[in-house]
Description:
two-stranded antiparallel ribbon, 438 residues
Amino acid sequence: MKFSVWFSVFCLCFVMISCGVDEDEEETASCITAKDCGDGYICKNSTCQPKSTATDESSEGKSDPEDVGIPTNGDEGGEGDESGENGENGELEGCPNACSGFGDCDFETKICTCTQNHGGEDCSECAEGYHLESEDMDEDGDPNIRSCVYNVTCDPDPCNGGRCTAKENTVKCECLNHTAGVLCDACEQGYLKSAVDGECKPDCSGITCEAPKKCGVDYATNEAACNSCSDEHYSGADCKSCDAGYFCGGHATACIVEGSSPKCACEAAYAGVDCKDCASGYMPKNGVCVKSCTAEQCFKEFKCKSVLFGDYGLEYITSGHCNISTCECDQGWKTATSAYGEGETVYCTDVAFGVPLDSRANVLCTVCDVDNPPSNYASTGCPADCYANFCNGTDTANGQGSCYTEKGTHKVYCKCASGYTMTGGSQYYDENPTGQCE
């Protein structure tokens, strides 16, 4: 077995010498494609190499003739089993030149299927319409691989406004106007490509802004400009608007810059340069400013001054149901509304003619809350007016009963004084307004 192998090697060397081929010279010859090498040689790793050597090296890294295509079945003198393609334990040989890294190998047919832009038996050639990258140009974006790229000409201009020079099947671009890249389709350092007109314009590193402005990039246009304020709490084209929430405690309707300082337009309840104080008429309560009261503001009620032929105007009296420290109604009292404003309406009527001469709305805590009466009316409900003679006894001018608003039903009813009984009908006014306490 070993004798026959070495004999074969000897014969191969003899043939090469007799043919005048200098193996070392051919292996070191530089090449780009297989066309640059002689017959029987391929271009691998930019050098011409014999096809048989490249094929052996591609067979799983085995170069020993005993391991390549020759079975080792332990029969010292045998010639091997020829029943398989390459012997019982042999392996399929790969495609030529491993398809040069630009294609897929079919190990059964030993045929390369090249990528779109490559061709040739081992995919080391360029397909029609493509050319091998120039050594001094990276046309495909991968500086580590020289591959076949699409043919380019100067017409139409591929240099994006730069100067174009034809170079075999490609071009050489001289970039202008701060453009960069093989085809001048990028911007040089310190510039941004505008999304508006495609021009390369300075980024913030090349723009100087005067205070209070600073440079910023508008990501909608990809252009840099003095379009921001150096202090994040200021805004506007001239940085004259300020953040009311930051400078004014969140209690201002607006914030503007006067000189170099913010000025707050405070809400009605607040005052001070930063709107953190309570305005006149307001007081702090639970961290906020609420309306404060004076005795006159809080306790206000109007009634007629005169009944007979006198002054028919209205007089001010206090109601006593408002808490002056909080300006809130006492429990069970509220402020109602009417056509005249807050509070119930009071009419001043001329007794002689029975017509109203004037009226005024009572305000602030003068109305008993029928749904939640104060504690002194908890059992009876809020006081109510008694109409005509309902509920009033006839034996005395003062009457012997009082009317209230029944809780839950809101019906007016009569409650007789101690020692008196309702006669003449129901105690409810709506059912029998003639009932009396006797």
